[in-house]
Design goal:
alpha+beta, 3-stranded mixed beta sheet, 3 helices, 25% helix, binds FE2/S2 (inorganic) cluster, 2Fe-2S_ferredoxin-type, electron transfer activity, Adrenodoxin-like, metal-binding, iron-sulfur
């Protein structure tokens, strides 16, 4: 059975087989999700955000993933390398912290709130 997954904020979509990891689907869609461990749950860089209605369309987090993420699981955070697609779903990739800081500085500078860029 095939399911469509949408990646926000880009809106890119791909159709994959049930049981495909979100990380593998992202690669197939040309969406970058950072990773250093190659999907072995060692780097925790592949976090994605899933809203509560979509949680049922991903495999439930198993004990090792829950242990690694702690309370983040209750906030809808999953590891893309561990979450398997079980239905049509939309996930969000959190903005890189460095990019977010730069974007905020640029926005503040543009609005005249800050005379200094750095
Ligand atoms: S890819 Fe490293 S924890 Fe998921």
């Amino acid at each position: 059975m095939k399911h469509e997954i949408t990646f926000n904020p880009s809106g890119k979509k791909v159709v994959v087989s049930r049981g495909t990891s979100v990380l593998a689907a992202a690669r197939r869609a040309g969406v970058h999700i950072p990773t250093r461990c190659g999907g072995k749950m060692g780097c925790l860089m592949c976090k994605i955000e899933v809203d509560q209605t979509a949680e049922k369309r991903l495999s439930p987090p198993e004990e090792p993933e829950q242990r690694k993420l702690g309370s983040l699981v209750r906030q809808g955070i999953r590891l893309a390398c561990q979450a398997k697609i079980e239905g049509t779903v939309t996930v969000s990739i959190p903005e890189d912290k460095l990019k977010a800081a730069i974007r905020k500085k640029l926005e503040a500078a543009r609005e005249g709130e800050s005379d200094e860029l750095w």
